[in-house]
Amino acid sequence: MVLQIRLLALLMGLATLCPARRTDDIPDDKEWEAFKMQYNKAYSSGNEEKIRRQIFFQNKMMIKKHNYRYAQNLTSFKVALNHLGDKMRGEITAFFTGPQQQHVVNNSIEPIPLTGDYEWIPSSIDWRQKGAVTGVKSQLQCASGWAFATTGSLEGQLYRHSQRLISMSEQNLIDCCHLCYGCSGGRMDYAFTYIMQNGGLDSEVAYPYEARVCTTTPTVHQLN
């Protein structure tokens, strides 16, 4: 009898050392169904959906851990769930980068040396607060990050020089910068060369993004 009491006390002590699993760590099918509905997800089989569901909750836990680190000032940014929440990291990399192309590096551009006193330059600048950054864009399933990097750079420079924040056309670059490979990759320096030779670039309103190589002809004169 005494032994049973001691065993019971020991088990109760272990229970206090091992707290119950948090309810917000338990996969919730309502969240999964809401995610599928929000992003119009459809899978080829029940087995694929089972795998995607597992990946979704793994990513959700990763996001939670990362944002906890953000709250502790251990990292500089937060993350959130989006349409890629049911994909693995390797899939996402392939999704955005596509097949890798060989590029000839242009070594004719000489770097400009910095001279003078730069002690007055601040350690960091948030250009979003200054109104020089357009909203978040999505390249969708098209390896056109080179085009978005190019337009983002030009949009900021245009704002600095004219105080006009205009979203520029990535599609214009995808279709017309023939030194690049459309949705299969490209380089910013080639894109800049095209813009200079073309005399400017269209706005996104005039030449909207389609996430594919197409033959659309812009109907509005480009910005220069």
UniProtKB/TrEMBL annotation:
Top-rank taxon, per record: Eukaryota
Which residue ranges does the record assign to the Cathepsin propeptide inhibitor domain?
A: 32-92
Keywords from the UniProt entry:
Signal
GO MF entries: cysteine-type peptidase activity
Give start and end of each Peptidase C1A papain C-terminal domain.
Answer: 121-224
The answer on whether this UniProt entry bears the keyword Signal reads yes
Supply one GO BP term. proteolysis
Pfam families from the xrefs? Answer: Inhibitor_I29, Peptidase_C1
Endpoints of the signal sequence: 1-20
Q: Which PANTHER family match?
A: CYSTEINE PROTEASE FAMILY C1-RELATED
Give the family per the record.
Belongs to the peptidase C1 family.
- Protein name in UniProt: Uncharacterized protein
Task: Write down the species.
Answer: Scylla paramamosain
Give the source lineage, highest ranks first. Eukaryota, Metazoa, Ecdysozoa, Arthropoda, Crustacea
